[in-house]
């Protein structure tokens, strides 16, 4: 005779087993998927993008592999349009197609750090209306044009460009990021900042220029209307233009 309590126990056990089977069926064998919303495929010796994810996937970590490119259909063929966070750092990425992220309108965070990206199309992230955070840190040969918008996105708030071996930067390069609040440019070799745009960086609150080779900071930077914190530590600065505001926002600057 089966007692009601036993039936109840068996019922829940069957539900758990079925749920586990469904999750495993929607997870590539090289990945770990604790739920259908999260997949971790770290250090899996991957050379190509895996398949078999749940279409409800929101957080994908595919860092520390050997993936070389993301073409136009790489992500769309996986039907992971609910993706919100995407980490593909520490791979060997060289090429990202300008349509790679089409159809991923829920994406909020993309980590492309420590790859081998040399160039990005300005429109690469243009159609991601919820993107807030982007890291390109450690792409040591990244090329940023100084006479046009480097990237175009109307929602991005935080951009990491540390350790990219940048030598010169231009304010105009950031014209396409009208909501940018934090910009991190530390640990480069920046010598000059071209103040060639009145529209760029007007929403910026935090600017980290530490550990570069700057000798001066243009007044257009100091006088950015919303700038609250400017870090210039470990540079060669001998001149701040517009220094009436500098006392409020400048950190660790040298005497001049």
UniProtKB/TrEMBL annotation:
Pfam family name, one: LRR_8
Signal peptide location: 1-25
Top-level taxonomy: Eukaryota, Metazoa, Ecdysozoa, Arthropoda, Hexapoda
Organism, scientific name: Diploptera punctata
Keywords recorded for this protein, A-Z: Leucine-rich repeat, Repeat, Signal
Name the record gives this protein: Uncharacterized protein
InterPro entries: Dev_Immune_Receptor (IPR050328), Leu-rich_rpt (IPR001611), Leu-rich_rpt_typical-subtyp (IPR003591), LRR_dom_sf (IPR032675)
């Amino acid at each position: 005779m089966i007692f009601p309590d036993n039936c109840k126990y068996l019922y829940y056990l069957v539900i758990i087993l079925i749920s586990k089977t469904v999750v495993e069926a929607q997870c590539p064998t090289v990945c770990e998927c604790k739920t259908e919303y999260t997949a971790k495929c770290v250090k899996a010796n991957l050379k190509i993008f895996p398949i078999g994810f749940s279409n409800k996937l929101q957080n994908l970590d595919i860092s520390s592999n050997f993936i070389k490119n993301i073409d136009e259909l790489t992500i769309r063929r996986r039907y992971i349009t609910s993706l919100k966070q995407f980490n593909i750092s520490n791979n060997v990425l060289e090429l990202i197609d300008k349509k790679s992220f089409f159809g991923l309108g829920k994406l909020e965070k993309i980590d492309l750090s420590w790859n081998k990206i040399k160039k990005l199309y300005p429109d690469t992230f243009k159609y991601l209306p919820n993107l807030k955070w982007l890291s390109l840190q450690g792409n040591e040969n990244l090329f940023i044009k100084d006479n046009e918008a480097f990237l175009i996105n109307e929602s991005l708030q935080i951009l990491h460009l540390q350790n990219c071996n940048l030598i010169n930067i231009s304010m105009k390069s950031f014209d396409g990021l009208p909501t940018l609040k934090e910009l991190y440019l530390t640990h480069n070799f920046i010598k000059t900042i071209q103040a060639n745009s009145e529209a760029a960086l007007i929403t910026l609150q935090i600017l980290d220029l530490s550990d570069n080779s700057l000798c001066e900071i243009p007044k257009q930077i100091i006088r950015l209307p919303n700038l609250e914190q400017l870090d210039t530590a470990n540079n060669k600065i001998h001149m701040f233009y517009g220094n009436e505001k500098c006392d409020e926002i400048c950190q660790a600057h040298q005497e001049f």
